[in-house]
Inverse folding.
């Protein structure tokens, strides 16, 4: 059965109180914490939550409220990743007519599973691919890479680098920077371990 907003607030207050104090709150403390008008209102909410199997309570005992497994299981459920409005497209060249659209950008597209992780970029070896010092990158854990993928590579078991991945004759791997001032890294295939493939680049402007 669905919870009302106030019932959810009561459960969350009880949960937070137990986490902080190690025991359940009294009806008086619930009323004070949630600014409820009377103890009768608290009793009503507790009775409804018991009937919905979100709470259990010892008969005629003080501080005997316990959260049910049903509530605890809901708290452990992963929260959905946020969505933000995708309002349209903006010209970076000549101005174009503004066109409003009604879509959302769901970050689950980039980070919807446990194989995604983030790193902060240091250095400018990938600057021609518009990956700059200080950018945050999202990567998908993977041990395989296709030609031209931007990857995090562990080289020689000790050093990691962000580069484009290419296979070369003679069982060699070329880790190619996107910076004309830098030379590619050539290493034996057995000395390269792929730790992730690039999904997205995030840049924050202060």
């Amino acid at each position: 059965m669905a919870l009302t907003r106030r019932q959810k607030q009561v459960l969350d207050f009880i949960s937070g109180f137990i986490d902080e104090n190690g025991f359940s709150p009294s009806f008086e403390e619930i009323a004070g914490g949630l600014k409820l008008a009377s103890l009768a209102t608290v009793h009503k909410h507790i009775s409804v939550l018991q009937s919905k199997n979100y709470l259990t309570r010892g008969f005629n005992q003080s501080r005997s409220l316990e959260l049910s497994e049903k509530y605890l299981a809901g708290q452990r459920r992963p929260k959905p990743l946020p969505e933000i409005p995708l309002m349209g497209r903006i010209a970076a060249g000549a101005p174009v007519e503004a066109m409003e659209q009604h879509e959302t950008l769901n970050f689950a597209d980039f980070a919807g599973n446990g194989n995604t992780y983030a790193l902060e970029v240091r250095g400018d070896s990938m600057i021609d691919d518009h990956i700059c010092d200080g950018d945050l990158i999202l990567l998908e854990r993977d041990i395989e890479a296709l030609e031209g993928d931007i990857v995090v590579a562990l080289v020689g078991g000790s050093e990691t680098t962000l580069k484009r991945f290419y296979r070369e004759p003679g069982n060699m791997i070329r880790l190619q920077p996107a910076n004309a001032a830098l030379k590619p890294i050539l290493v034996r295939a057995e000395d390269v371990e792929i730790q992730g493939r690039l999904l997205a680049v995030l840049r924050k402007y202060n």
Summary: Residues 5-76 form a domain with the Arc Repressor Mutant, subunit A fold (CATH 1.10.10.10). The radius of gyration is 27 Å. Residues 5-21 form the longest helix (17 residues). The CA atoms of residues 23 and 63 lie 7 Å apart.
